[in-house]
TrEMBL record:
CDD domains: AAA (cd00009)
PROSITE patterns reported in the protein's UniProt record: SIGMA54_INTERACT_2, SIGMA54_INTERACT_3, SIGMA54_INTERACT_4
Tree of life domain: Bacteria
Protein's name according to its UniProt entry: Sigma-54-dependent Fis family transcriptional regulator
SMART domains: AAA, GAF
């Protein structure tokens, strides 16, 4: 290579610069954290140029100021002082004019304001300051500076050229990496949005917007994606079956069957045959082989309703099926394997049943993997108006009615009723009222007489003041437990009584705190 060498020393520009640029480009490409990796790059540059120090200043377009982003040969406090306004000092000028500036002997220059307070000479030798703008598509994003010993024999043009190339490489990589970070962040954000949409997606069939219900939808959406056994708990008529359907419809098994078994409706003698099927001739009348519900639900979901009513003997048999997902048909010896997701439901207090010996503890732990407590209607009265509209709509369609609305006084009566039969009761009340309504409006006198008594709302004075006070006390405790999701300590705090005092009342009024847990 016969290039004219303007650089002092033995080396000529060419090969060593190529190696430097290659080294820097590799470091930039492999960098995972550019800010951290810039100092080693500046160190390579300083060594190559036989310089004293080097630093990069980044221009912030919003504040019109520059700050040192990375440095080699500067202390942390010196770096911290490196803040410049546009046009301030050499760096401010370079960024403002988008042109390189060289100060040959900084100790003699008035332009060199030395904001970072470094020595102006080195061992009695003068220092040269070279600063080039960092350009991206002709827009200045910052500056790259180098300080080296002054040598009148050295032309700085090649240094300016080299620094400009390095600066442009750094600026382009920074933009590329920043783009990638932003792209990744945008994808993460999108993912978060989708996840939260998925979490809060409301079911079509289950009506209710109360906070409690929205919490339940999020739980259902989460557990539906898994294969875990779900135990739905809550009073009768609360919608447990609807929740079971929702879990199935949102699960991976949704294209397979959802098979329902009402455990309390089957006579004990038939339960096993119903669940596991039977072989031909297994017993008198079994004239052909019949598949059980487990086999029919293979690949899908088996909904075991009223599981608290299962006889102990069947619970033992189910233990193995729930553990191994395998069983034999009644009268058969061939082991059948199934892939079934179990959703169970009960309105009974299983813990109490265990204490009484009516429910097996081992079976309880097998089904109590993911319990979901559905609160009774009286604990989420906010949902009553929307449920009423839903049922009016339903009966209009079913019976070709034209009911337009319900009066405020009728709705008020529905709002204060205790709803021991929960939503099933409300549904029946609305059906009856729609039939009774004469002018396409549901009035309070269209509601069943049971709702029109003070008794139904707990507002009777019968029994005197003590009874009314007790009823009020009971209601306050229930409301507090609803707010705290069954947490007695927090409920006591809310009511400003001791936990012990609340415990005594809970016992006295036979309030089942477990029912308030969601
Ligand atoms: N949130 C709801 N939105 C709309 N309808 C509901 C809702 N909850 C319950 N229902 C309706 O109420 C009736 C009773 O619901 P479901 O049979 O699911 O209750 P359950 O808790 O399984 O009762 P049980 O314990 O007696 O079996 C059904 O007609 C159901 O459609």
């Amino acid at each position: 290579m016969s290039l004219k060498c303007n650089k002092a020393g033995d080396e000529c520009y060419g090969f060593s610069e190529m190696s430097l640029l290659f080294d820097i480009s590799q470091r930039l490409l492999n960098s995972n954290e550019l800010k951290k990796d810039l100092s080693p790059i500046l160190s390579c540059l300083v060594k190559h140029l036989n310089a004293e120090r080097s630093f990069i200043t980044i221009f912030n377009r919003h504040t019109n100021r520059m700050m040192i982003e990375a440095a080699y040969g500067l202390s942390v406090s010196q770096q911290a002082r490196g803040k410049y306004d546009l046009g301030e000092g050499i760096i401010g000028k370079v960024v403002e004019l988008a042109r390189p500036v060289v100060i040959s002997e900084i100790s003699k220059s008035k332009l060199f304001i030395n904001k970072i307070k470094t020595e102006l000479t080195k061992d009695g030798q003068e220092l040269t300051f070279i600063c080039v703008p960092l350009l991206l598509d002709n827009v200045v994003t910052g500056a790259l500076s180098v300080v080296r010993i002054y040598n009148s024999n050295i032309s700085v043009n090649e240094d300016i050229q080299l620094l400009s190339i390095v600066g442009s490489m750094i600026a382009k990589t920074a933009r590329y990496k920043q783009g990638k970070v932003e792209e990744l962040e945008a994808l993460r954000e999108h993912n978060r949005e989708l996840q939260s949409q998925l979490d809060s997606r409301k079911p079509h069939n289950i009506i209710g917007n109360s906070g409690k219900m929205c919490d339940l939808y999020a739980l259902v959406n989460r557990v539906a994606q898994t294969n875990s056994t779900v135990l739905l708990r809550g009073e009768s008529g609360i919608g447990k079956e609807l929740f079971a359907e929702e879990i199935h419809n949102k699960s991976k098994q949704k294209d397979h069957k959802l098979i329902k078994v009402n455990c309390s409706a089957l006579p004990e003698s038939l339960i096993e045959s119903e669940l596991f099927g039977h072989e031909k001739g297994a017993y008198t009348g079994a004239d052909q082989m019949r598949k059980g519900r487990f086999e029919l639900a293979d690949g899908g979901t088996l909904f075991l309703d009223e599981i608290g009513d299962l006889p102990l003997s069947t619970q033992v048999k189910l233990l193995r099926v729930l553990q191994e997902r395998e069983f034999e048909r009644v009268g058969g010896s061939k082991t059948i394997k199934v892939n079934v997701r179990i959703v169970a439901a009960t309105n009974r207090n299983l813990e109490e049943l265990i204490e009484k010996g009516d429910f097996r503890e081992d079976f309880y732990y097998r089904i109590n993997v993911f319990p979901i407590f559905i609160p009774p209607l009286r604990h989420r009265r906010d949902d009553i108006p929307i449920l009423v509209d839903h049922f009016i709509d339903k009966f209009n369609r079913k019976n070709n009615f034209q009911i337009k609305r319900i009066t405020t006084s009728a709705l008020n009566m529905l709002m204060v009723h205790r709803w021991p039969g929960n939503i099933r009761e409300l549904e029946n009340v609305i059906e009856r009222s729609c039939i009774m309504a004469k002018d396409n409006v549901v009035h309070s006198y269209d509601l069943p007489p049971t709702l029109q008594t003070a008794d139904s709302t707990n507002s009777t004075m019968e029994g005197g003041m003590m009874v009314v006070v007790e009823q009020l006390e009971k209601q306050l405790i229930r409301d507090a437990l609803t707010t705290t999701s069954g947490n007695v300590t927090k409920a006591a705090e809310l009511l400003c009584v001791t936990e012990r005092m609340l415990g005594t009342r809970v016992k006295k009024y036979e309030i089942e705190t477990w029912r308030f847990k969601v």
